[in-house]
Recover the amino acids of this structure.
DNA sequence: AAAGCGGGGCA
DNA sequence: TGCCCAGCTTT
């Protein structure tokens, strides 16, 4: 077990990327980077980390911001509850912890948006405590290296891999070990096309010996895909201000702003709905389709419904200051000059 | 224990 | 174009 850790650290010293959060022991910056990097690639998260550190150099400044300012900066990163939890936790730290992060795994775990992985990461990186990180990289490396085909998303699998991760952890330098194993997973022992031919662990890797690197790690069951069909109404008032509504809680893009939207049950209903515009209201001035993951969205330049429901009207300038779903943001990018105003 | 939450990369 | 990635919260 010890060989694995030593090889990982040796590899890390020659191959690691130079990333800003690796030059600090500041729990605030480490926390910021870890939350941003949850479910997010380094390339995508890096600019957001720089934006946040620049805009909010301390946890107190982040706590003082409004949620909307935080979400605006978060716009485009996805999983927006991370942004809301980030803000909430900053306020807890600033107001109830005197600006200092808890210096224990258990203390960190109590905070919003910090689960087992992030608590292990912060406690090792910032406080040199011996907690092993177990993220997707670690699951992958351990399952391959030890040739374990237990599903990584099963209870038994998680328990097993967490146990092994703790056993291989170098408790003398947990921060270095944790950085090394995750960087190794990201650059060397990649999900697809891992670089086995130039791998320092090749001779001791069980999966390589049995020629089943590509079969590991094992994941259980399929997630069922839900297709959704949206039509957005791009409406303006007499002053050429655009109507926006705020998305409700409990669904995708919670709390973000969008054009007033109707959701249809099927692609057919969506088309029928669109055609009703073409017949009943001459022809829509503008129609455009964007596909976002499993969401098919049309934008129609629709007539403004009078005093029906109360939508908030904003100028284009004001809209750019609100947190928008990536889909709406993309639409505005592409059609800014076609819009009235 | 299971479902839901978003982006972007890549075959 | 469709598949893949994967930590945390909520149910």
């Amino acid at each position: 077990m010890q060989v694995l850790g030593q090889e990982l650290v040796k590899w890390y010293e020659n191959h690691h990327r130079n990333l800003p959060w690796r030059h600090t022991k500041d729990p605030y910056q480490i926390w910021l980077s870890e939350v941003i990097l949850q479910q997010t690639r380094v390339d995508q998260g890096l600019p957001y980390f720089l934006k946040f550190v620049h805009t909010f150099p301390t946890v107190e400044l982040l706590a003082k911001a409004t949620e909307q300012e935080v979400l605006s900066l978060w716009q485009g990163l996805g999983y927006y509850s991370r942004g809301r939890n980030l803000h909430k936790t900053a306020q807890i730290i600033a107001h109830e912890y005197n600006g200092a992060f808890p210096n224990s795994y258990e203390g960190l775990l109590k905070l919003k948006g910090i689960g087992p992985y992030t608590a292990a990461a912060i406690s090792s990186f910032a406080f040199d405590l011996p907690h092993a990180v177990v993220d997707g990289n670690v699951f992958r490396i351990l399952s391959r290296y030890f040739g374990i085909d237990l599903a990584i998303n099963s209870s038994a699998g998680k328990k097993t891999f967490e146990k092994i991760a703790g056993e291989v952890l170098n408790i003398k330098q947990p921060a270095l070990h944790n950085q090394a194993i995750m960087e190794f997973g990201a650059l060397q022992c990649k999900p697809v096309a891992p670089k086995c031919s130039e791998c320092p662990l090749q001779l001791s890797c069980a999966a390589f010996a049995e020629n089943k690197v590509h079969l590991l790690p094992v994941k259980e069951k399929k997630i069922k895909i839900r297709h959704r069909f949206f039509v957005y109404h791009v409406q303006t008032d007499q002053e050429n201000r655009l109507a926006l509504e705020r998305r409700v809680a409990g669904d995708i893009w919670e709390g973000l702003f969008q054009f007033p939207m109707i959701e249809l049950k099927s692609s057919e209903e969506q088309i029928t709905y669109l055609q009703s515009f073409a017949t009943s209201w001459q022809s829509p001035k503008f129609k455009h389709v964007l596909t976002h993951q499993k969401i098919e969205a049309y934008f129609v330049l629709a007539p403004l419904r009078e005093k029906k429901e109360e939508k908030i009207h904003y100028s284009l300038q004001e809209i750019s200051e609100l947190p928008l779903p990536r889909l709406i943001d993309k639409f505005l990018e592409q059609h800014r000059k076609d819009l009235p105003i």
Remarks:
- Residues 38-39, 41, 79, 81-82, 85, 112-118, 135-136, 139, 152-153, 191-192, 250, 291 of chain A lie near DNA strand C (CB under 10 Å from a C1').
- The radius of gyration of chain A is 24 Å.
- The domain at 2-215 of chain A is CATH 1.10.340.30 (Endonuclease III; domain 1).
- Chain A is about 45% helix and 10% strand.
